[in-house]
Amino acid sequence: MGFRVVAPKQIAPAAARYAHAVETTGAQKWLHTSGVVPIRPDGSVADDIGEQAATIWGNISAMLTDAQLEASDIVSVTTYVTVGQDLKAVMAERDRFLDGHLAASTLVVVPELAQPAWKVEIAVIAAR
What we know:
Oligomer: single chain
Number of helices: 2
CATH superfamily: RutC-like
Shape: globular
Distance between the termini: 6 Å
Largest sheet: 4 strands, mixed
Radius of gyration: 15 Å
Structural class: alpha+beta
């Protein structure tokens, strides 16, 4: 199975640490998460958006491990952040978790999420 970052020279470079597109060939296993929310194992939710993002990536890590996949298998990330939040903190947690791996990434600012305490929600697609 292979991944190829698609970065045509005819378009502007990506605005941050992500790929415009990722081509996947020969994948035998796919993992599609729902929107992963910032609930810790004990049921609590941090107030800080950076901590919420870290919790979400920890939850995604657990899902990847259960599916016998790794962060480097992620091909797409969709992030929803509520209005007025620190986007840099959210992107920093994404970049820390992906550790140099580039995935296609979409960031959407929304008025609110399903629960008032949630400031960020992330869905990923991974393939191997």
